[in-house]
Structure formats: structure tokens, C-alpha cells
Design a protein that fits this description.
The chain is mainly beta. The chain has 6 domains: 3-11 and 153-268, no CATH class; 31-141, Immunoglobulin-like (Sandwich), CATH 2.60.40; 273-279 and 293-387, no CATH class; 389-502, Sandwich (Immunoglobulin-like), CATH 2.60.40; 510-607; 611-788, Zona pellucida, ZP-N domain (Immunoglobulin-like). It is built from 9 helices and 59 strands. Strand 18 and strand 19 form a beta hairpin. It is elongated and about 155 Å long. The model is unreliable at 1-33, 166-170, 687-691, 693-699, 741-751 and 756-789 (pLDDT under 50). Residues 1-19 form the signal peptide. InterPro entries: Ig-like_ZP, ZP-N, ZP_dom. Residues 753-762 have a biased composition (Polar residues).
Length: 794
């Protein structure tokens, strides 16, 4: 920068600014409160305004306001007047930066600046509203020369009270411009644009403005501003860095004096780069286009920061910022995700991507040989390209544990696993934990995590496929659903794991109903030794079959088990005088763990003759043919000990009673091992007209029925009167007896009573292995022979 004078004296340059205080106060009083988040800050070189874009709304627009009216800040108007407007769509915000020397800004002595803007917001319905933004900034004194490189324009301002340069410091181009200025200077301001290798062009400031060059005067400075890529701009390589240079000389002739101001702006065109770890931006160590004549600029200070503010050395170190100065260039770098930048994550094509953006603020101070300071200010928006962070999965399955273990890695810190889909069955993480699945999150470092899931081979959702004899494939397809927090943007990852192991399926029985029982059959397989066949808690073997009356045939190829009706192990249901259902079940157990792996059950329909069933829930069901003792007896004229308990069904010969063991006058007897419940089916030859039995001199007949249960298998026997047994009881039927008339007494409904212990109880009379074998016929007593009911065993 230099001033040239034709003769003695000094032309005082000034600009008259409009008084806006009254107008600003009026606008401030009428401003509406913003309906969206907004940030307004005074930075070192500019005013910063950030406005969040409403969801589903359009981009906000700005108008600069002064006493003369409102001026829309458009793409073309912004660089003219010192405004930089940008929309950061990924962050859903719009940013406006306004130079302190921007148009429509009230400037008080280049120290206090007052801004007024109107911000318009359009909602999703198309309705537009606005609010006013005002801000007053007090800034420290500017350097004699300030060169600012914004994103969309270059600006240079110089103080108008600098001393005249010495003859030796005037550069050649400026000397050449002097002759042009002296011959063409008129009473108005003029601009001479110079381009290396081209003829200089002299024009009025109005004509210069039409070409995109704007000049304004403040109380103490001359400001020149232009956007990038204008005519007369040149691009030079300075120390292997592309630099755009604009050379302008402003001159004015007044009487006998010509004032010339050399204005030059030079900005690095480096767009920044990303090496995978850091963002870098380069500029020449010395911006030689700013050098005047043979003098040299000496760099005295270099600083960097973000968002319009240079940070101190300690803060830069703490954040990982770095400035590397060589003989030729200065490299400013910021590490990925460092404080001060903005990290944005999003889903693109079902892949998690992240973007790191930072608004680099660079400042360098030069001093020439006269001690005149030039401050070079740069604002550079830099961003990484979208960086995909695809998850990866690792199969960590261990065959010994028979558990699938899948590792899902490279999960960023702002991502959360919300659900997993196991072979098509989706389960939330919370539900999976409640179901017993193990899902853990572990740190990988570098702000990434991993999830580990464990699913047993035997899990219900694992697919098991038979390949060949004894050879199976276990497979699991996992769909991981991941959400970016807090926007809850979902993406998915698929893992597929499988393993082949030697395994075998439990044997499968074919079953068939017969008239007098159920038959089970299976072919022998190579891996039969891996399982035990059991009936209840007892393993099926020849001894058990013999003791219980099963017919077991086992040759080299086939195993056949015929289970006669009324042998131990049947469950009887839906009993009527005509028919009932009998169910028999075989259990296949793992020979090592004894866990049940498969059940083979068969339910068959049988014809009813006579039976006695003692159920686990305390119900005795008996079907008896009373005509065997008294051919002329009427089955409908029978009762239990409680004469109000009548048969549920009868036919010409048989009766069906089903009653609770704690009802119908049932008696019980308890010893150390067994509980015996006993009732009687009573029938008489004569009845009164009200159908109640009447005792006559004729003999009566009785059938005694018993259910015997082991004490250890009965729950809550005498406390809450609720009966529950682990296994069905033993049923016994005592052959009908004729009671002598002298022993008959009038019968009344009875409450349950305890039987008087005899000298030899039923439990005492049975062999020691009764509970295990389940076959025992008691000896004759003084009345009759006992016979075993269909549930004759535990």
C-alpha cells in the first residue's frame, strides 16, 4: 500500500455516514421474538448470525435494514456489500456473516458498528413470518491495512492517514500508475485496474461497480471489495500455492493535488484437503503480491481458530490444532472431530456416514520496513467428504460351548443398537435381555464400539438342518437395527453365521392304537446310545417292562413296545360309560444330561367296561358293573357313603361315579408313607317314593373303592383342602359283599372321616418295592378280595 502526492499538502478523505440511532430504536421496539433458535455474535472480523431451519420449512432469507429501507441479501448482492450467506443443510441451519464494513451498517468512527437485519421464515403451509435482529459490536482498532479473504469475496481496507512512502519503496507498477493518474485524474473518484501483462483500465467507481468492484469510504478508511473470479483478477502460483490477486489503484484530483491509494488483495485458493485424520489448508508463508517495491514483509504472528475467532496457543494445543511453517508455505490443520468443528452423521444408501465441517479462521500479521502492519484474515469453510462407517461382523462361535457368538464392530459413539432379528424373528434389545440373550457393548477406542451377541445352538430361532447321517448344519441370520441418536435415523446390518457339527436327532417313535392298548415302534439308528427312553422318571429296560406288564421286543433293527391298557403310565380322560381316552407318553432323554429332548405321546379312544382312576388333582372316577353281584340290581339306585352323591351315568348294569377325594363321605387313612382314600358304592333293593334309600330287612350290597397315594407326592393335604399329587394314585376295587341285615343301620350323608387304623394297613401289607414296581394285589381280608384299578402304580 502506498500513497502518492503530486505536490505538498494532504487531502483529507472522509465519508459522511447516516445517523441510524433513532431508526434502530424504532425497529428494536417493533421486533418480533424469533420462533426458531438463533445465535448472534460479534466476531473479530465480522458479525455472525446462525438460524436453525424449521423442520419441513424453507430456507430463511435475510434483509439488511438501514434508514433508507430494507435490502434483500441475494447471491449477487452479498459479495458487493460484504455479506456471506450459506445454508448448511446437513445441520439444518443458515449462517450469515457480515463484514464490519458491510453496506447498511452504522459505523461510528470505525470502532462501534450497529447492524439491523430482518429474517424471514416460511413454514410448511407456505405462510411467511419475520423477526428483526439487531446487534451493536465494539471492536478494537484495525491494523493500517486489513486484507480479508471470505468465502465469496475479497476485501481490503486501508487507513487514510498513513505517511507518504519514500521514493525507494514505491514499486514499479505503482510508479507507472502515477503517470496515468496524473494525466487522467478529474474531479471525481476513479479506479485503475491492473493485470499483469495487460493494459491498465481506468474507469469511474460507478463503472467499476458494474464490473463487480466496490469502493466505499468510512470515517477513517478506504474499503475495496470484490468477489472471486472477476475480470482483471489473476491467479498466480506462489510457492506452489494458487493465489488470486486483484490490483486496484484509486485516485482523485483536487485542484493541485492528486491522491493515489494502492489497493491489492491476495487470497490463497487452496480448498483444503483431508488425509483421513486431519483437515489441512495451505497458504504461502509470505504473500508476495502484498509486498511494496523491493521491501520485504516480515511475518510476525500466525494464529488459527474456528468460527471467526483465533484461539490462544494453549487452547490450540488442547484441541490438537497445528500450524506448520516452512520456508515456502504455512500448513494449518485440524484433527477430525476436534472441538470447534461440527460433526454430522447420517444414513445414505443404508450406510452410516459422517461428515466433519469446520470454519477455519486464519490470521497472519506482516510488518514492512516502515513498521506498517498488514493483517491478513482468512475464513475458509472446510469439510471432509462423507466418511462411511460400515459395521463389520466377526464370527466368534465356539463349538465346544455350542453357542453362536457374533461380534459387530465399528459402531460410532452416537449409534445405538435397538433390535436384532434372529432368522426373521425381530426382538428389541430390552426384550432379548429379558429372554436371556446375552448382548453386550464394548469399547473399541477412537469413539467406536462393538456389540457382541450370544445365541445357543439349541435356541428356538436357530435353524438346524440335516445334512447326512449324524451331520447337521446350524445357521443363524442376524439383522441388526441401529439408530443414530438423537435423530433416530435407522440403518441395518446383516450377519450370517453357520457351523457344521456331528450331531444326531432324538429317535422318533411311530405309534398305533389297538383294542387293548397302544403300540410304539422305532428303527434303530447309529446314535441311539446318545439317548435313554423313559416312562416318567423310570428308564425303559426289560426289567421295568416285565414288572409293569409291558411287552418289549428289541431285535437288531427295531424296538417295539406294546403297552396294555391299565398298566402303569396311562392318563385317562373324558371317561363315560361308553368310552374314554387313554394317553401314554415316552420320553427321550439326553443320556449325559438327562434333559428331556423329545416326547412321543399317543392318545387313543377305548371302550369302557370297568375301571377305577385316581387322578393327580384328587378326583376318583369309577365304573363298576353291580349286576355281577346282584343280577337284578338297579344301577340308578346307588349312592356313595354320602347318599346325596348319585351316579353321573348309569345303564342296565353299570354305574359311573366321579367325585373329589375330599367329598361324598370319603374316608382317609394316613401312615408314614401312604394316604389311602376309601368310599363305597351302596345299592339297595327297595326305595321310598322320594327316591331316598330306605333300610329294610332285605340285605344291602356294597362295593368298596380306594385310591392310595404316597405322602411325599401330595401337596397341601389337610391345610387348605386343595389336593395335588405328583403322580396318579393306585386304584383298588373290593369285590361286592352282602351285608347281614343285623349290621345295617340307617344311612345318613357323611362328612369325610379318618379310617381307624387296622393292625395291618394297606401300606404295611404291600411289598417294599411297591412304589417302584407298581404291581401289588393285597391279600384277602375278612370280607373279600381286593383287585387293582387301572392306575395301579406310582
Amino acid at each position: 500500500m502506498a500513497f502518492g502526492f503530486v505536490s505538498g499538502g494532504l487531502l483529507f478523505l472522509c465519508a459522511v455516514t447516516c445517523a441510524l440511532l433513532d431508526f434502530v430504536n424504532t425497529l428494536q421496539q417493533s421486533s418480533k421474538l424469533p420462533q426458531v433458535p438463533i445465535v448472534v455474535e460479534c466476531k473479530t472480523q465480522s458479525l455472525f448470525i446462525s438460524v436453525d431451519i424449521p423442520s419441513l420449512g424453507s430456507e430463511p432469507r435475510f434483509e439488511a435494514v438501514d434508514a433508507t429501507g430494507a435490502y434483500p441479501i441475494t447471491e449477487s448482492y452479498g459479495p458487493q456489500c460484504g455479506y456471506t450467506y450459506s445454508v448448511q443443510s446437513l445441520l439444518s441451519r443458515a449462517v450469515l456473516r457480515a463484514s464490519y464494513f458491510s453496506c447498511h451498517t452504522d459505523n461510528q468512527n470505525d470502532e462501534v458498528f450497529t447492524f439491523m437485519f430482518r429474517v424471514f421464515i416460511m413454514d410448511q403451509s407456505g405462510k411467511e413470518s419475520f423477526f428483526n435482529v439487531s446487534k451493536t459490536c465494539s471492536v478494537p482498532p484495525f491494523s493500517p491495512r486489513e486484507v480479508t479473504c471470505e468465502e465469496n469475496y475479497m476485501e481490503v481496507s486501508v487507513r487514510t492517514d498513513l505517511p507518504c512512502p519514500t521514493a525507494g519503496s514505491i514499486k514499479e507498477d505503482f510508479s507507472a500508475a502515477y503517470g496515468v493518474a496524473q494525466s487522467s485524474a478529474i474531479e471525481t473518484w476513479q479506479v485503475m485496474l491492473q493485470q499483469e501483462g495487460q493494459q491498465s483500465a481506468v474507469m469511474s467507481t460507478e463503472d467499476a461497480a458494474t464490473l463487480g468492484y466496490f469502493i466505499m469510504v468510512t470515517p477513517g478508511r478506504l474499503v475495496f471489495r470484490t468477489s472471486f473470479g472477476q475480470p482483471y483478477a489473476s491467479v498466480k502460483m506462489v510457492n506452489n500455492v494458487a493465489v488470486e490477486v486483484i490490483q486496484a489503484t484509486v485516485f482523485f484530483r483536487q485542484n493541485w493535488m492528486v491522491v493515489m491509494v494502492d489497493l491489492v488483495a491476495a487470497c490463497s485458493l487452496d480448498e483444503g484437503s483431508f488425509d483421513g485424520y486431519r483437515l489441512h489448508w495451505r497458504t504461502p508463508a509470505v504473500m508476495t503480491p502484498l509486498v511494496v517495491g523491493p521491501s520485504e514483509l516480515r511475518s510476525e504472528y500466525i494464529g488459527m481458530g474456528v468460527d471467526g475467532e483465533v484461539v490462544d496457543e494453549q487452547a490450540a494445543t488442547d484441541r490438537g490444532y497445528s500450524v506448520t511453517v516452512s520456508d515456502e508455505t504455512v500448513d494449518s490443520s485440524i484433527p477430525y472431530a476436534a472441538e470447534g468443528g461440527i460433526r454430522k452423521s447420517f444414513v445414505m444408501d443404508n450406510v452410516y456416514n459422517e461428515l466433519y465441517m469446520v470454519q477455519l479462521t486464519y490470521q497472519q500479521t506482516f510488518v514492512d520496513q516502515h513498521g506498517v502492519v498488514t493483517k491478513h484474515n482468512v475464513v475458509r469453510q472446510m469439510a471432509t467428504p462423507p466418511i462411511p462407517r460400515p459395521p463389520f461382523s466377526v464370527n466368534q462361535t465356539t463349538l465346544e460351548e455350542r453357542v453362536f457368538q457374533v461380534y459387530l464392530g465399528n459402531i460410532p459413539f452416537d449409534v445405538e443398537l435397538v433390535s436384532v432379528e434372529l432368522n426373521g424373528q425381530e426382538i428389541s434389545v430390552l426384550t432379548a435381555a429379558q429372554m436371556g440373550y446375552s448382548i453386550t457393548r464394548v469399547s473399541e477406542g477412537n469413539n467406536t464400539f462393538a456389540y457382541i451377541i450370544r445365541v445357543p445352538f439349541e435356541d428356538q430361532f436357530v435353524v438346524k438342518q440335516y445334512i447326512s447321517e449324524g451331520y447337521f448344519e446350524y445357521s443363524l441370520e442376524i439383522k441388526w437395527t441401529l439408530n443414530i441418536m438423537p435423530q433416530m435415523e435407522a440403518y441395518y446390518h446383516y450377519s450370517s453365521v453357520s457351523t457344521f457339527i456331528i450331531d444326531a436327532l432324538p429317535p422318533v417313535f411311530d405309534s398305533m392304537c389297538a383294542d387293548n392298548g397302544i403300540s410304539f415302534m422305532k428303527d434303530h439308528q447309529q446314535y441311539d446310545y446318545l439317548w435313554d427312553i423313559a416312562i416318567g422318571s423310570y428308564t425303559l429296560n426289560p426289567q421295568l417292562a416285565s414288572e409293569r406288564g409291558y411287552i418289549l421286543t428289541n431285535d437288531s433293527t427295531t424296538l417295539i413296545l406294546d403297552v396294555p391298557l391299565f398298566t402303569i403310565g396311562y392318563i385317562y380322560e373324558d371317561i363315560t360309560l361308553q368310552q374314554f381316552y387313554g394317553t401314554f407318553e415316552l420320553l427321550t432323554k439326553n443320556a449325559k444330561t438327562l434333559e428331556i429332548e423329545q416326547t412321543s405321546s399317543k392318545r387313543c379312544l377305548f371302550q369302557t367296561t370297568e375301571l377305577l382312576v385316581c387322578s393327580t388333582d384328587g378326583v376318583m372316577t369309577v365304573v363298576s358293573d353291580i349286576t355281577k353281584a346282584v343280577p337284578s340290581a338297579d344301577p340308578a339306585r346307588t349312592t356313595l357313603l354320602d347318599t346325596s352323591c348319585r351316579p353321573q351315568e348309569t345303564d342296565e348294569a353299570r354305574v359311573l361315579f366321579s367325585f373329589g377325594l375330599n367329598t361324598c363321605g370319603t374316608r382317609f387313612q394316613v401312615d408314614q408313607q401312604y394316604v389311602t382314600y376309601e368310599n363305597e358304592i351302596i345299592f339297595h333293593e327297595l326305595y321310598s317314593t322320594d327316591t331316598r334309600p330306605v333300610i329294610t330287612r332285605d340285605a344291602a350290597y356294597r362295593v368298596t373303592v380306594r385310591c392310595i397315594y404316597p405322602v411325599r407326592g401330595i401337596e397341601s393335604l389337610f391345610v387348605d383342602r386343595k389336593f395335588s399329587a405328583d403322580t396318579p394314585g393306585i386304584g383298588q376295587i373290593k369285590d361286592p359283599v352282602k351285608v347281614p341285615p343285623q349290621m345295617l343301620k340307617p344311612m345318613q350323608p357323611q362328612k369325610q372321616t379318618a379310617m381307624k387304623p387296622s393292625s395291618q394297613s394297606a401300606a404295611a401289607r404291600k411289598p417294599a418295592d411297591y412304589a417302584r414296581v407298581g404291581q401289588w394285589t393285597p391279600p384277602l381280608d375278612e370280607y373279600a378280595q381286593w383287585s387293582l384299578g387301572p392306575n395301579g402304580g406310582f
